[in-house]
TrEMBL record:
The keyword Oxidoreductase applies. CDD domains: ALDH_F5_SSADH_GabD. It comes from Streptomyces afghaniensis 772. This is Putative Succinate-semialdehyde dehydrogenase GabD. InterPro entries: Ald_DH/histidinol_DH (IPR016161), Ald_DH_C (IPR016163), Ald_DH_CS_GLU (IPR029510), Ald_DH_N (IPR016162), Aldehyde_DH_dom (IPR015590), Aldehyde_DH_Superfamily (IPR050740). It comes from the Bacteria. Keywords: Oxidoreductase. The lineage of its organism: Bacteria, Bacillati, Actinomycetota, Actinomycetes, Kitasatosporales.
Amino acid sequence: MTDVLNQLFIGGAWVDAADGATMPVDDPATGEILCHVADAGPKDAKLAEEAAVQAQQDWARTAPRTRSEILRRAYELILERTDELAHLMTSEMGKPLAEARGEVAYAAEFFRWFSEEAVRIDGGCGTLPDGRNRMLLSRRPVGPCLLITPWNFPLAMGTRKIGPAIAAGCTMILKPAPQTPLSSLALAGILKEAGLPDGVLNVVTTSRAGEVCEPLLRGGRIRKLSFTGSTGVGRILLAQCADTVVRTSMELGGNAPFIVFDDADLDVAVDGAMVAKMRNMGEACTAANRFFVHRSVADEFGRRLAERMRALVVGPGTRDGVDVGPLIDRTGRGKVEELVADAVERGARVLVGGRTPEGPGCFYPPTVLTDVSPESRLMDTEIFGPVAAILTFDDEDEVLRRANDTPWGLVGYVFTQGLDRGLRVSEGLEVGMVGLNTGLVSNPAAPFGGVKQSGLGREGGQVGIDEFLEYQYVAVPVR
């Protein structure tokens, strides 16, 4: 892979790390090194910060229509390069090409959505209740932002954060996950081609996240952090933001319940389960983690789900006909192996899968477990792999109590043919999003985010741009 962008993007220029350091990017399907990219240190972070701060004032004054047109052009360029971006993503992350192409379309849509929102940033005017003052309300960019993205959706998580920041008039430093820097660097190249001014977006790839991010958050010049990743890392970042009261939005971990009632259409439920569990090989914060199935239909649901999972083809994502690619790395696969082993030791039965294949790469087979003990570690751990763990329940109150018995609250899934029950249970779930008779909730036009320890704020939808804007109120005496 000699034609990929592999330098830092700072102030509109492609540069090596100040100390010359590089880091490898691995192919999870083979374990081989694809290429090396610049490995930024604190000096590079400081240069990126300076570029973002210097560009902020002029960028904030840029006409909303100009910002909108840059995003629209970038949207078009992404779609024009779907195959190129999909192959790049599959190479560094592992997902099958069909899924990678789907992510390219999903990623592009955030730019189209926020290109339309850029010209709809409004304020307000009115007389205050005492009649003495008029109130003028305006919204303005929060300022330079640090955006930290994960490896599981390397292109879409970038556009979901960059899109509203550009639309709002904020400059940025993007720090992508070290496993998947290539998609972010390609995105920076596209935005430069689309006309984004120098310094508005800076991309700092690094294996030294603590050395790079902590000084930025404690330094007082970065005014906004948007982070997607684990709850544990999110807590550390929140503490670092406290010193200078950096505004934060956090999309953290999940432990999604998938509830199947006795009146559910099992064909619909199994279809939903395949999407909610197997999208991105289960490496998604929205992935169904705990399958609560009514006792009367649990055996049939498990049989059908195992049959569907058994039919999936596992292999390198670039190979035709492959449904399930490798997990991101050996650490991720090792975690899945340990969780399955623990469940089996506690009495779970393996309906399909459950054994790591021999050979290179980080592959793990689609797996269905039944008779899972509530004490199993995978009940309170984000699995991040292709493992469906089935438990049974008897009544609505019981399943709601068990579904909510977790510190996380990102998404839940409910399958029932009763509208009243579906809405009642959806409203009873302590989550930010619910899929009612569907296994897919993510959409650029909908607000994405959770409650409890699954995060703060929302991304996407009409409210997504609000995370990057501040209100200013001006009092004008009535004469």
